[in-house]
């Protein structure tokens, strides 16, 4: 059974940093496309970053390019999203996603950027 568990969200001041984690289980983690999405209240869910777990490919939304870094720890079946230079526009619930036999989502972790 595919299971994705996000953690690491919280309240951070503008300009600050956070690292989100997504612990994955229940499927073959090798060579999978793992994604981070986010959704702010009243807005559509937005793809933030994608990584292939063999590390050969990653991609970012223009809004986070140069500030966010997606990475993977294969022995731990975990995907990270390092977020820096955070602004209020980054406030959202962040979700981990994988398409295995269908799309799977974690429960989300809330990120609030506020002074």
Structure description:
- The protein is mainly beta and 115 residues long.
- Helices cover 0% and strands 53% of the residues.
- It contains no helices and 11 strands.
- It has strands at 3-7, 10-12, 18-25, 33-39, 46-52, 58-60, 68-73, 78-83, 92-99, 103-105, 109-113.
- The strands form 2 sheets. Strands 2, 4, 5, 6, 9, 10 and 11 form a 7-stranded mixed β-sheet that branches.
- The radius of gyration is 13 Å and the shape is globular.
- It starts with a strand and ends with a strand.
Order of helices and strands: EEEEEEEEEEE
Radius of gyration: 13 Å
Query: Assembly type of the shown chains?
Result: single chain
Secondary-structure-derived class:
mainly beta
User: How many helices in DSSP terms?
Assistant: 0
In which range does the helix fraction lie?
A: under 10%
Q: How far is the first residue's CA from the last residue's CA? A: 40 Å
Largest sheet: 7 strands, mixed
Mean pLDDT: 96
């Amino acid at each position: 059974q595919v299971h994705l568990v996000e953690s690491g969200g919280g309240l951070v001041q503008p300009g600050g940093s956070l690292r989100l984690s997504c612990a994955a289980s229940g499927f073959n983690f090798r060579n999978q496309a793992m994604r981070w999405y986010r959704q702010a209240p009243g807005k559509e869910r937005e793809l933030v970053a994608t990584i292939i777990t063999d590390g050969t490919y990653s991609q970012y939304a223009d809004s986070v390019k140069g500030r966010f870094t997606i990475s993977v720890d294969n022995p731990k079946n975990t995907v990270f999203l390092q977020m820096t230079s955070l602004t209020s526009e980054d406030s959202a619930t962040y979700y981990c996603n994988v398409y295995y036999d269908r799309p799977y989502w974690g429960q989300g972790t809330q990120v609030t950027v506020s002074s």
